[in-house]
Amino acid sequence: MKKVKTAFFGSSRYSLPYLELLYRNELIDISLVVSQPDKPFGRELELKPSPVKEWARGHHILTLTPSDLSNGLFLGALTSLPLKLAIITYYGLKIPREVIDLFPLGMLNIHHSLLPKHRVSNPIPWAILSGEEKTGTTIIKISEKFDDGEIVGFDEQPIEETDTTETLRSRLDSKALVLLDKVLPKYVSGKINLRKQDKSESSYEPKLTREAGLINWSQSDEEIERMIRAFTPWPGTWTTLEELATS
User: Fold this and answer.
1) What is the per-residue pLDDT across 35-88, written as a single tens digit (0 to 9) for each?
2) Torsion of CA 217, 170, 167, 138, to 10 degrees
3) What interhelical angle do 51-58 and 16-24 show, nearest 10?
């Protein structure tokens, strides 16, 4: 089977195992990497590329870092490449309709929740915070609406009583790599029946911020303990002397 020319959208270091898996996959030809723009780092605020951009540069793969995916130059570059498929994980920017339409096989997003639950950019801590017993990973063919695409495949995992966001993320990523490797051959050959999400079960949470880590001492010990695990490593949990004095 001829390799499928694919674009990879990712920015975080957590993206790298997926990029490496696809790079080794005999069905996939990583023809383009798209990552977030370089960001200031350190005291000198020196611009630093994302881990994904650094990886792509080391493997001599064309890399684009647009701040606006609707930009004409970026769209023109995509149009000039014979791309068929895109894979998205830990990218961090919303994908507009005009980009989605450029991929004949669509764009697949790897999302760490059992969609349609936790339609949010960082779903793992919210599953822990909610006291849920299970979560998982869903691979969807994205649509213009946020996390609203058809389901390609999913993997369900238990949430352990000691899980933090970091330990749960590690386990989900490990299982998601297996899932992605399993569904790709069937997907590119058109042998997967896509399933629509049940919108009646959808849930949305606010964007996670530093302020979310402020402990409310009127909550139960169980709720506070879940919060500490959910917000490890970020944004962390904290309190003030005033909060302690009034608790």
Assistant:
1) 999 999 877 778 999 999 999 999 999 999 999 999 999 999 999 999 999 999
2) 50
3) 30
